[in-house]
Amino acid sequence: MVYLPGGTFTMGSNSAEGYPADGEGPARTVRVDPFRISAYAVTNAQFKAFADETGYVTEAERFGWSFVFHLFVPESAKLLADPAPSATPWWFAVNGACWFRPEGPGTGIADRMDHPVVHVSWHDAAAYCRWTGQRLPTEAEWEYAARGGLEGRTYPWGDLLKPEGAHRCNIWQGKFPVKNNAADGYAGTAPVDAYAPNGYSLYNMVGNVWEWCADWFSPAYHASTGRANPRFARPTGVRSMRGGSYLCHRSYCNRYRVAARSSNTPDSSTGNCGFRVAESLK
Ligand SMILES: [Ca+2]
Questions:
Q1: Does domain 2-280 have CATH number 3.30.750.200?
Q2: Residues in domain Sulfatase-modifying factor enzyme-like (predicted)?
Q3: From ligand 1's centre to the CA of 227, what distance in Å?
């Protein structure tokens, strides 16, 4: 866990790069109290310790399926999968896919114990947090943390996606959704400590996996929450996610920016969403 002193920062973005429908702005000054946040997303090893000790069964396990990106789905599983959602035909609802079988039956996490856990719903993430005595970060805390002490920048390390040609996060290179040349080293998830950390020693705040936040999601977030420790608390049916994932590409989902936002229903799980944990100071 990394202690962050809190304070004021410019949250959100007015950039034309943003998605107005997501409510990334208007940018404004926000204050957050001191808190701690995990340097890394919760790993498969950590989630396994939780599941082993508590017997917790995730929602994907109970529902019997989860969304897997099409290029990772075995042909045999594709035949059994339900038709993909028409708006996002690259997602296959794969029977048996869950956190310890990320691509469905016959797949596993033995060689990915230091990768972020995926196929966890918001409810699953909240259950893990109850076990550790922690909580999910608010969106404001997450963005304060992701910015790493920089003011008004696009990424956790600055404004250039690849400073001096170096990959700084795990996103998509190539033609989405058909050809990922994985120039950054990873077609799927990367270890949670891959790439250089930001100025607060936090790893993979953008890219790799989406991270659930504590807030309900609303495009009116910036317009309707206060400036001190904001949190959108009115249920909207969808929970906030931050940071983008290994599937993000400029052409389709330019959301590997610190101000970018997205959402999903709290019982949903996918192969590209996980979480990190936070703590209030006693
Ligand atoms: Ca990648």
A1: no
A2: 1-278
A3: 35
Q: What is the largest CA-CA distance in the chain?
A: 52
* Model pLDDT for residues 176-198, shown as the tens digit of each residue: 999 999 999 999 999 999 999 99
Give the residue among 172, 236, 170 at the shortest CA–CA distance from 209: 170
Which of these, 236, 179, 197, lies nearest to 39 by C-alpha position? 197
Q: Which two tokens stand for residue 6?
A: 């809190």
d(CA 139, CA 230): 8
pLDDT digit string (tens) for 75-123? 888 877 777 778 888 999 999 999 999 999 999 999 999 999 999 999 9
CA separation, residue 138 to residues 42, 134, 216 (Å): 16, 12, 10
Instruction: Return the structure tokens found at 242.
Output: 């931050």
d(CA 8, CA 152) in angstroms, rounded, equals 12
Dist. CA 252 → ligand 1 center (Å): 15
Alpha carbon distances (Å) from 228 to 11, 34, 255: 12, 12, 25
Q: At what angle do helices 122-132 and 44-54 cross, to 10 degrees?
A: 70
Q: How far is the CA of 280 from the centre of ligand 1 (A)?
A: 33
Distance 246 CA to ligand 1 centre (A): 5
Centre of ligand 1 from the C-alpha of residue 171, in Å: 4
Domain residue ranges in the chain:
2-280
